[in-house]
Design a protein that fits this description.
Residues 94-151 form the Helix-turn-helix domain. The chain is of the alpha+beta class. The chain has helices at 2-9, 38-48, 103-120, 124-140, 145-156, 160-163, 185-199, 219-223, and strands at 20-26, 29-34, 65-68, 71-76, 79-84, 176-180, 210-214, 225-231, 240-246, 254-258, 265-269.
Length: 271
């Protein structure tokens, strides 16, 4: 996609270069601010689909409102305003508070989500509306009312301008202790904390390690096992990689796979 943009879009000799005031892409989602009328924008959308047979673009063109990722961007009085975009198929899929995950992660989820809304909403009144909707969803997922109130108050008191500044992370010299999360994880941390002075008594100064946890296996991991499979199509000169889904742990001689882009069915002999 980068090569496509460099060759056809962001070069002065292409026919629509002067119309593109802003071009921003995140993976396969693109936001374009266009200088010109809607007919010209539609012509551009048709033109890009003629450049590469492997790429197909769909477009939403409007002179008042568009959506990009989780943003709804509107034009009012000659100024751009942003808010939170909700897909029509959205449902409350927030993490359940009683999930088997570290308590610190669950306790900090409300403030993380509210700060995202604070950053995305350019109008304060819109922020409060979206924040109330989120607080209701958090309540449905069994988050403590006290945590929700404190998170909303904290997010409301943070200036939005400070959230738009990129955070520059400084290199850390602390040791990283990465383990799989279990009900005994906190006990392990407490044991390390208790006996850490003994470990550093040899004279070497070591900072207390930073603990991080990996997700443990869930039911999906036990039922569905995904792993890469190499296949060779008669018309290809080299192997390619796709993925197979095995619903059980048994080994059989033949495995089938469907190519994600072409939809062709391949059968590989693993005997």
């Amino acid at each position: 996609m980068f090569d496509f943009e460099r060759r056809y879009i962001l070069t002065p000799d292409q026919p629509f270069f002067s119309n593109i005031r802003l071009w921003r892409r995140y993976i396969d989602d693109i936001l374009v601010i266009w200088k010109g009328n809607i007919d010209q924008a539609k012509a551009f959308a048709q033109w890009v689909n003629t450049l590469d047979t492997n790429l197909r673009f769909t477009s939403t063109i409007s002179d008042s409102e568009v959506s990009f990722l989780d943003l709804r961007i509107t034009l009012k009085g000659g100024r751009l305003h942003s808010s939170v975009f909700h897909k029509p198929t959205d449902r409350n899929s927030l993490l359940l508070y009683n999930s088997h995950l570290p308590k610190a992660l669950r306790d900090n989820l409300p403030i993380g989500q509210l700060l995202r809304i604070r950053r995305n909403c350019s109008d304060t009144s819109d922020f409060h509306t979206q924040a109330n909707m989120l607080c209701h969803k958090l309540s449905e997922r069994n988050y403590p009312a006290r945590n929700i109130r404190q998170a909303k108050k904290r997010a409301s008191n943070i200036p939005r301008e400070s959230l738009l500044i990129d955070n520059i992370r400084t290199p850390q010299s602390r040791l990283n202790c990465v383990t799989t999360f279990t009900p005994l994880s906190n006990r392990i941390k407490n044991v390390v904390r208790k006996f850490w002075p003994i470990l550093t008594s040899a004279g070497e100064t070591l900072e207390y390690p930073l603990f991080a946890f990996k997700r443990t296996h869930n039911i999906k991991d036990l039922v569905v096992h995904t792993r890469p499979m190499t296949y060779r199509h008669p018309g290809n000169t080299g192997p390619s990689q796709c993925f197979e889904a095995i619903s059980d742990k048994t080994e059989t001689a033949l495995f089938s796979a469907v190519h994600l882009s072409s939809g062709r069915l391949f059968v590989a002999d693993r005997s």
